[in-house]
Amino acid sequence: MDRxxxxxxxxxxxxxxxxxxxxxxxxxxxxxxxxxxLVTDEGVFALNDHPATxxxxxxxxxxxxxxxxxxxxxxxxxNEQPTAGESTExxxxxxxxxxxxxxxxxxxxxxxxxxxxxxxxxxxxxxxHPRSTLVSKLRKLAES
Length: 144
What we know:
The chain is an alpha+beta fold and 144 residues long. The protein has 6 helices and 5 strands; from the N terminus they run αβββββααααα. Helix 4 (103-110) packs antiparallel against helix 5 (114-125) and helix 5 packs antiparallel against helix 6.
C-alpha cells in the first residue's frame, strides 16, 4: 500500500500521511498529527496512544508494525526539518510542482500548507482562464 492508498483507506488527505510501511501484520501508517495506525484485513488498529485514535481498537499483536514505524522515523530524523520555503514533500520528490489537474487535485496537493497555496495561486492566476473559486480558496489558504 502506498501513501495515497493509505490516505484513501483512512479517509485522510494525502498530505496527512507521513510514513507507510508494509509489515507481515499489515500496513503501518504514521499520520502528520503523530498518530500511528495499522491497516489490516480485519480493520484499522491504533498502534500508539493518541487522541486521534482514541476510538480505534488497540493492536495487541506483534510489535513489528510499531518497530517498523520507529525505524522509519529514526531514518528520517536528520531530514525531517525542511529548509526555509521547502516542505518535506518537496525534498523527497513527492510534490514539488503544482498538479495540472482539477481544482480538487490542486487543493489536495496544497492541504493546509501556506507555501504550497501561494505557489498554486501563482500558477492558477497565470492560466489563460483562471478558476475563480479555486483562486478564492487558494488566497484564503495562503493568507491564513
